[in-house]
Amino acid sequence: MTPGDQHSDAPAAQPVRSDAERNRGRILAAARAVFGRDGLGASMASVARETGVGIATVFRHFPTKEALVAAVFSDRMDAYADAVATALDHPDPWHGFIGYIETACAMQAADSGFADVLTMTFPTAKAMEKRRNEAYEGMVELISRAKATGRLREDFDPSDLVLLHMANLGVVNACGDAAPDAWRRVVALMIQSFEAPARGTLPASPEHDALYRAMLRAAPVSGATRKPEQSS
Amino acid sequence: MTPGDQHSDAPAAQPVRSDAERNRGRILAAARAVFGRDGLGASMASVARETGVGIATVFRHFPTKEALVAAVFSDRMDAYADAVATALDHPDPWHGFIGYIETACAMQAADSGFADVLTMTFPTAKAMEKRRNEAYEGMVELISRAKATGRLREDFDPSDLVLLHMANLGVVNACGDAAPDAWRRVVALMIQSFEAPARGTLPASPEHDALYRAMLRAAPVSGATRKPEQSS
Hints:
The structure is a homodimer. By secondary structure, chain A is mainly alpha-helical. The first copy, chain A, has ten helices and no strands.
């Protein structure tokens, strides 16, 4: 069984024969490659082509593109939600907070698909959005607790985590295999900049709607190819 | 006259008629678009196609691709060298240093071609490399002076500027027009993290050769399209 089977975006459970399971796995692998290469705007037809099956087979396993997107990204969403839960469980909220950042940035460096979960929205995949929003609420709570300890600067905004992940992705993409750990130094500097007391004021955070639009337009990045299209 | 005419990578000066000048400008504009879209690996033939002239016309103005690359990027190289010179002239090296960062990151946000000058190498364009190396030496001198004031952390490495520009480009590319000033907040945080005394140790900087390889593989980024090819 693939991780997507466990989630409400997945098609209704039915007895599945093993060749159907194998097909499902092949479709998911192909979809991961196609979405990584062409963005979430890629069509079900191109996923079928990549898999080497007819489009009807794709639709039999995933009745909507939302269901397919959710299945492709759900394991990354699980990892993100787990990282937030672990951070919230830490007895010291500041250490939970920086531990989360290091974990999430490491996941982002290891897997460009994870970056999509962090910096994109999935407006057409409601269950995905719901789970991410729950994790996001957990982060907001963690940030509030970390501020209460006096270790996190008061003007830290949850959107700074989105910006951090965009910056991290820039380093990861630019350095690639040539300097695969360079992002760690940038993330360490960023974490130190978050520490209270603040060493100066900051330009205002982007407005929520603006950052949301930015996340909407950000396409999955895989290797060095990206396209601007978003889920249609 | 275009900026490229002043530099040693440009073809030997000859009396140029005004329609030839116009052609030269059109070729440069087309090359800027083609390199931005396809990377420095784009062929002279594709520049000719984009310009709408024969390839012989392109070679008459730019006898080698190195000469064309140098002409396309020389105005950005000028801006980079000017920013370094201005920073070195500042009576307070720390303020010169942070002023340089703000200027260079603003140029990077406004013009993706500028990012290429900062984070790529041009191994086949010797004069470009020479000018950039001179500007880089100026930066190393400025960093040394800023450390001497006690305001810049001792473990700051010149390569941290490259990483900063990679991070900034990540934010600029991800936010685009949706949140066009979001990078300012990230850069302000980074500058605060550079301030002495350091709030903690940092992971080691990437090795010089590793970062150089990363810069070699980084292709020009324009909008949301990039390709891995480098100058051939």
